[in-house]
Design a protein that fits this description.
The complex is a heterotrimer of chains A (234), B (336) and C (292). By secondary structure, chain A is α/β, with parallel strands linked by helices. Chain A has helices spanning 43-50, 73-76, 96-103, 114-119, 121-125, 136-149, 166-183, 194-200, 218-223, 225-232; strands at 5-14, 17-27, 32-36, 56-63, 66-67, 81-84, 154-158, 186-190, 203-208, 211-217. Classes of the chains: A alpha/beta (234), B mainly alpha (336), C mainly alpha (292). Chains in contact: A-C, B-C.
Chain lengths: 234, 336, 292
């Protein structure tokens, strides 16, 4: 079986100076891959390129062998890609319910939100609250929940633990693992919080200055003291 | 000169060469104009005079919008203030110098009141408020009709000029004297601390405040300065037309003034001059086209459309809008 | 007292038109953060088109429809051809470009139709019904209320009940996030302009028979009143725009009725100054941010 997401020789960035150089990676269905690296390594740029917000200058991006180069951002969701940006991207002027509905609008049929509310009972209680009335953890759950409404095959998740209490981070990581196991969702997870990312990921990928320096299964990476020291700083 | 390399230096890089003293520009200009008034036929002299009168107001506006970042759509109304003041003063005292001084003084006060409000407003709010000001002129003229005589307006009593020169020549002298004094005053003002403060406020209000610049004070002063200029221009227009009426200061005039400074290039007195010339030349060109076509409907409307098209084109062609019209200028200055 | 009643109804009828026009301004402000200073000129243009059709066919309603559809088209065109390419880093850029459009539209209208007032017929009688000795409302006033009321209800339904409305709101509030969720943001912006311009055209059609008639500058004062109405309500608030419109309509009518018509523009200016300096965010913007 070939991988769900295949990236080969990707070079991308902002204008004249590329941030990513010759990046290759694969994510299988039902696999969580953590993208690790210091600030400025190109992690967010990678996600933004995959979801079409930045142009791919060189290389190939395919999902299920479908070429995604040149596909517009607003069409990506139709290719099964959901991107939860850093800072969560909850539309604070809309209610919880409206935010969730927004996730499923690209489909003809009415989105089924009940499953999401089952997954996040905290959101169910606040469905008519506005986005800006939610706590940080609730916003993160809402953003992930909204991405799930689209029923994606691949979830691009940027720094879900940012600014959250460890307990809530752990909940979110557990949820990702659960989703992977139940639905076969593939996740590309960008994290600064290496420990919690590797606790949930199957594999890890280390970016440094826009290049992939290593890729290995999560347990090995977590145990590799040199690597941790040099690239991840703990 | 070498080209500017570091992008962050573009705005701060002042040309190294010594700038011409304003007097070194104004005195030769005065001589040229004086010579012109003897060479030109009366109608051209009248047009020359009109350019001078327009230059007064566009010079003030280019300071307000270009250097201080405030957009006023109400300067037509300020011109009306100056014009009516002059008319009332002339009809009572018939001393032109006194009339002009009073016109500038009264408009300065009115501009101060609007400026105080303007300093608290930004962007579209300020534009909307000044637009509303521009539309009340007929309303005021009709409401206080015993003073302003409604739509008919007032005639302006004027002493005839000396026999040696024509009326138009005298008008050109008068208007250009006003214009050159305005330009001189503004040129000296913006070179100093006031100019620096205005640019600082325009570029970043918070930073300006942190640097100890009185933001509101600077904005009000800029508005008052431009209002005084508009008052002078209005007074000169009243002299040119020898009458004042609300119809001479329609909303379109206020819009034309903004167009002129934007098209001429913001924040520069030479831009104000280009704008003033355009304000006279474009309607003239449109007029001759309309005459050739024999169509009355083209008259006026063609100029309107010209202005609109040029304005939209300029704004779309300049990638950063108004701000880039300023930047481009700096770069050019750096090269020449 | 009779006069007061009459003026009140007249003011509400005028206010309904201002409300529709203010609503058009608010729609574009919410979608694009631009105050469309060309709204008045655009409405005049479509009113000319509408009345041209009415005069050619003899049917007011055909002209009415042409004007509204013309508004949709003109709004979309202005967004696609011009406003899309304006740099919006400074709010002044949009204002200046809109003013350029005003000059173009007024110039072109003047060239086609001339600069004299053209009479415009009302579809219903403007004679007020009598209740005892008191003149209250005309059929035309009722038509105005019905038309504006319909628009308000339709817009409310659109924004609160439909997917398209949700998309439009999301695209306006958070364009980048909306794109990631599959919302065609630029299409929503065009739609916002089209809808706003159509509402503006409706207001234009409603106001023309009550004023001197069609003229390239016919909406200059209407624009100021509507801008004031939108500011009174807070530029962000559709509810505020409607209430603001009614307030301005009443104020103008009372001032015209008791102090004289020439005083009215000054009253609008004073109201605008007072609101801008006293409550620059309008009377309703805060409440709106909490409830919508």
């Amino acid at each position: 079986m070939s991988a769900l997401l295949e990236v080969e020789g990707l070079t991308a960035g902002y204008g004249a100076a590329p941030v990513l150089h010759d990046v290759s990676l694969t994510v299988d269905a039902g696999q969580i891959v953590a993208v690790l690296g210091a600030n400025g390594a190109g992690k967010t740029t990678l996600l933004r390129t995959l979801s079409g917000q930045l142009a791919c200058e060189k290389g190939r991006i395919t999902v299920d062998r479908e070429d995604l180069r040149g596909v517009k951002v607003e069409r990506m969701v139709r290719h099964g890609i959901a991107h939860v940006p850093e800072g969560r991207g909850v539309v604070t002027e809309l209610t919880v319910d409206e935010n969730l509905r927004l996730g499923g609008l690209w489909r003809k049929q009415k989105p089924k939100l009940d499953g999401i509310y089952d997954l996040f009972p905290a959101l169910a209680q606040r469905r008519n609250h506005l986005g800006h009335q939610l706590s940080g953890g609730e916003r993160q759950m809402l953003a992930i929940g909204r991405a799930l409404v689209a029923e994606p095959r691949l979830l691009l998740l940027d720094e879900p633990s940012l600014g959250l209490a460890p307990k809530i981070t752990a909940q979110i990581m557990a949820l990702l693992r659960d989703l992977r196991d139940r639905t076969g969702l593939a996740v590309l997870l960008v994290e600064q919080n290496v420990r919690s990312a590797l606790s949930v990921a199957d594999e890890g990928l280390v970016l440094a200055l826009g290049r992939v320096v290593t890729r290995n299964d999560a347990a090995t990476l977590a145990g590799d003291a040199d690597l941790r020291h040099v690239y991840l700083g703990f | 000169m070498t080209t500017v390399t570091a992008p962050e230096k573009v705005t701060t890089n002042r040309p190294k060469r010594k700038r011409l003293s304003p007097l070194a520009v104004v005195i030769p200009a005065a001589a040229v104009i004086l010579a012109l008034t003897y060479a030109l036929p009366p109608f051209r002299n009248y047009q020359l005079a009109t350019v001078g009168a327009y230059l007064c107001v566009t010079a003030g506006l280019t300071v307000l919008t270009g250097l201080n970042g405030q957009l006023s759509l109400g300067h037509g109304a300020l011109m009306a203030t100056g014009a009516y003041t002059l008319a009332l003063m002339q009809n009572r005292f018939n001393v032109l110098a006194l009339g002009i001084l009073a016109a500038v003084a009264v408009t300065t006060v009115v501009g101060g009141v609007i400026g105080l409000a303007a300093a608290r407003l930004r962007g579209p709010y300020l534009a909307g408020l000044t637009l509303a000001v521009a539309t009340v002129v007929p309303s005021i003229a009709s409401t206080f009709d015993t003073t302003f005589n409604s739509d008919q307006g007032l005639t302006v009593a004027l002493e005839p000029p000396p026999d040696a020169i024509t009326v138009e020549q005298w008008q050109a002298w008068l208007c250009w004297a006003g214009a050159l004094v305005t330009v001189l005053v503004i040129a000296y003002l913006v070179r100093g601390r006031f100019g620096r403060d205005m640019r600082a406020v325009r570029d970043d209000e918070t930073a300006a405040k942190l640097a100890g610049i009185g933001v509101a004070r600077t904005q009000v002063l800029a508005f008052v300065l431009s209002a005084a200029c508009a008052g002078l221009a209005g007074a000169l227009f009243a002299v040119l037309a020898q009458s004042v009426s609300p119809g001479a200061f329609p909303l379109t005039l206020s819009l034309f003034l903004v167009m002129a400074v934007v098209i001429g290039g913001l924040g520069r007195l030479s831009g104000a001059l280009i704008g003033a010339v355009l304000l006279v030349a474009l309607p003239e060109i449109a007029h001759s086209i309309a005459e050739d076509a024999g169509s009355q409907r083209l008259e006026g409307n063609l100029a309107l459309t010209f202005f609109g098209v040029v304005l939209v084109a300029v704004m779309l062609a300049a990638p950063g809008g108004l701000a880039s019209l300023r930047l481009k200028r700096n770069k050019q200055k750096g090269r020449t | 007292m009779d006069r007061f009643l009459y003026l009140t109804f007249d003011g509400l009828s005028r206010g309904a038109v201002y409300a529709a026009f203010a609503l058009a301004l608010v729609l574009i402000w919410r979608a694009a953060r631009i105050v469309n200073f060309a709204q008045g000129a655009m409405a005049v243009a479509t009113a000319y088109a509408g009345y041209s059709v009415t005069n050619a066919t003899g049917s007011y309603w055909l002209g009415f429809i042409v004007a509204i559809v013309g508004g949709l088209v003109l709004g979309a065109l202005v967004e696609r051809v011009v406003m899309r390419f304006v740099d919006h880093s400074s709010p002044l850029n949009g204002v200046v470009v809109a003013l350029g459009l005003v000059l173009i539209i007024q110039g072109v209208l003047g060239m086609i139709y001339g600069n004299e007032f053209r009479p415009a017929e009302a579809p219903f009688s403007r004679d007020a019904f009598q209740l005892g000795d008191v003149a209250l409302l005309s059929r035309y006033d009722l038509f105005v209320f019905a038309a504006v009321g319909t628009v308000v209800v339709l817009l409310t339904l659109l924004f609160t009940r439909t997917s398209t409305g949700l998309r439009m709101r999301a695209a306006a509030f958070a364009p980048d996030v909306s794109r990631l969720l599959g919302v065609p943001v630029s299409g929503m912006l065009t739609l916002g302009w089209a809808l706003a311009a159509a509402v503006g055209s409706l207001a234009g059609m409603l106001v023309v028979p009550t004023e001197l008639g069609l003229h390239p500058n016919a909406m200059d004062l209407l624009f100021i009143s509507a801008f004031t109405a939108a500011v009174v309500g807070g530029l962000d608030s559709p509810v505020g725009a409607v209430v603001g419109g009614l307030i301005v309509g009443l104020l103008l009518t009372y001032v015209s009725g008791y102090l004289g018509a020439t005083v009215a523009p000054m009253a609008v200016l004073i109201l605008l100054v007072v609101v801008l300096l006293g409550r620059p965010d309008g009377l309703f913007s805060r409440a709106k941010a909490r409830t919508a």
